[in-house]
């Protein structure tokens, strides 16, 4: 009996140590195909988010686990698949190839180029879904992200590592703000990722062309899943954009990600969920639609220096209908983000561009992500502008106004005019500070409203030509001292001389 036991032990140890040369794969079959989603049977051991490989080389990602079947979204052309095709579990989490080679390229959500260029050589793969860094890995947001847009940098400052929502009706300039911010990162050494979800191919082509003309494409990755792509591809696009951003963040770099827009992303997820026959909730969205965006936006953060010190700043865009910010998806995303820039149709139509409603816009990071120079000149600006808009509305019904009110309304009108800005016309920090300082100190009070724009150009040209050292000092020191103020005062008065002659 002892000999038999020894014999079995020898066989057992031999089986454990010696390799048979065989590999066991888990294989299943396609039961159904419906709009980018496949229903599979026979895959009992797969995990959520795992990659599935079909016999023709197309991959899919597991999104639903049921008792007898598995649902997966196809990462590629689902029209090449048919019922009965075999599917193999890979044991690998769904991921996207990442490398520095993606800079300046336009790719789809699985990292394939769609700009006609060669395939990008990848160094490694990053998972599409990832748990956001915990509190221990983060540090507070302190460094500003200069947008180059006066109204935002002065009133609603954005910090590196922040999530700032851009919200408004269709055609109010949401994408323009995001693209201008990308263009302004040229000298800021920030890598940008622009993610187009459900947009027209023509619109994406225009944005790519605009970035190229402004020499901004060299530090930008464009990920596009157009309106003609399956809903599954549109659902994956922002996660792919975030994975590419995380690759650069892990290298200690500052990254800006624009999600344009998350309303269409929610629609795509609703479509996928309805195809999967998940229970529908409010407005036919599935119950986990809040988690859909929270797990994406929480990945934007400012890492502690011990863990590389990189940052991801997220600018999600959401479209409202008739200015209704209390709708389901807008309220969800407002509660996830660190503030919102609300763009108003009435202001846009009145010629105030960017059409930012100061009362409804907020940055929860606030002054901590603002330079000292901007704080000095814009400390009371937001409150004054909000009061001006309110007073301007009431003054329409008042026949006689006292001198103090007239003075306040005049100052408010000049500041509003100064904060107007043409698209693709970004300002550096020193220029923003110089013009806002002139407006808040009252130097423009006697200037005719229609001459403000002309004066601004002359004043800034004068500073660039004759006071480059002063401008450089503001830019470097990021503060304004008494000497700087005297210098600005001298050039403001010089720029105002022609207009004072006109008045006489």
Overview of the molecule:
It is a single chain. It contains 16 helices and 16 strands. A hairpin with a 4-residue loop joins strand 4 (59-65) and strand 5. The chain has three domains: 27-93, Beta Barrel (Elongation Factor Tu (Ef-tu), domain 3), CATH 2.40.30.20; 98-370, P-loop containing nucleotide triphosphate hydrolases (Rossmann fold, 3-Layer(aba) Sandwich), CATH 3.40.50.300; 376-503, Up-down Bundle (Lysin). The strands form three sheets. An eight-stranded mixed beta sheet has the order 8-12-11-13-14-10-15-16, sandwiched between helices. It has a six-stranded antiparallel barrel with strand order 1-2-5-4-3-6. Strands 7-9 form a two-stranded antiparallel ribbon. Helix 10 (372-378) runs parallel beside helix 13 (429-440) and helix 14 crosses helix 16 (482-503). The chain has 504 residues and is of the alpha/beta class.
